[in-house]
């Protein structure tokens, strides 16, 4: 099955019992046992048919064998971190999503799981950070908000040589453009709130794995910790995933045109987009991914202009989040990345004048005009 077909016909496909082309929303929290211990579903936290249909679809589109749906991307990340024990050490991409940074620094370290933030686009730096207690490497590529690129094959090799779990948050690239399990990743995580849902109407998270023993551990954690996705939200995600392909193609077309517009604009300084040939990760990303996506960040000539821009746009909504049909605009330093200390943000290059755009599906001419007006001093 090819990409777009799989988004529509993957997972369980048509409902066998009724012929319905959509999966039913099964609200039952408990299920009859014909004898004690004889059942298909037992209790809604442990298993639910709607969630299960979504989980099979997630596994298919990410080229894995087992999918797990959680109440949010952070719930998915939290569950994955339950695989580790006190004393373990994890290497993590230095400019990860702000919520991930907060979780790792505020909660993991308390559980005496130590972490080292590394620029994972530098494979040597990753190798140098490995200790005897190191159990995993957790990456994002492209990263948020600077779109840094990590080489999946190289990290896969390093992880394999040192017996580390290779975990990737694949939210930005989406399974339509990038399938990290091909390159040696063990666990792929998504904030399904973003492109998978695609319509800003559901908070959800996903994990996909290939390996059966890892899947059994995750199933145990999912049930034991309980942050499962509800059936209504599972349905919404399946609905969103059907159009992921067309959305990503169109979003990328819009993004390429807007990047050209930004390149010509006198009040725009640096542009961060992996589709640009002068982006340091361009070639690596082009090898491991089928598209450059719809997130672009840029700095303006002053902090004031950045503030003015995000407050002035009409079609770009000033809001957190990304990956939906409507275009969004934000200042990461003041919003998504505000939980990262200022000095740390400066080290990473997340300036106060940095604007992040999540390009949607509006007419690109309207989006360009919108930015043109907002960026005029
Ligand atoms: C939004 C996001 C998360 C967190 O997901 P939620 O669904 O908001 O909990 C994690 N990683 C990345 C890259 C994100 O963009």
UniProtKB/TrEMBL annotation:
PROSITE patterns: CYS_MET_METAB_PP (PS00868). The keyword Transferase applies. The modification N6-(pyridoxal phosphate)lysine is found at residue 194. GO terms for cellular component: cytoplasm. GO terms for biological process: cysteine biosynthetic process via cystathionine; methionine biosynthetic process; transsulfuration. The keyword Calcium does not apply. Its EC number is 2.5.1.48. Gene3D superfamilies: Aspartate Aminotransferase, domain 1, Type I PLP-dependent aspartate aminotransferase-like (Major domain). Its cofactor is pyridoxal 5'-phosphate. Keywords: Pyridoxal phosphate, Transferase. One of its GO terms (molecular function) is cystathionine gamma-lyase activity. InterPro entries: Cys/Met-Metab_PyrdxlP-dep_enz, Cys_met_metab_PP, PyrdxlP-dep_Trfase, PyrdxlP-dep_Trfase_major, PyrdxlP-dep_Trfase_small. Pfam families: Cys_Met_Meta_PP (PF01053). NCBIfam families: PRK07671.1. Belongs to the trans-sulfuration enzymes family. This is Cystathionine gamma-synthase. It comes from Alkalicoccobacillus plakortidis.
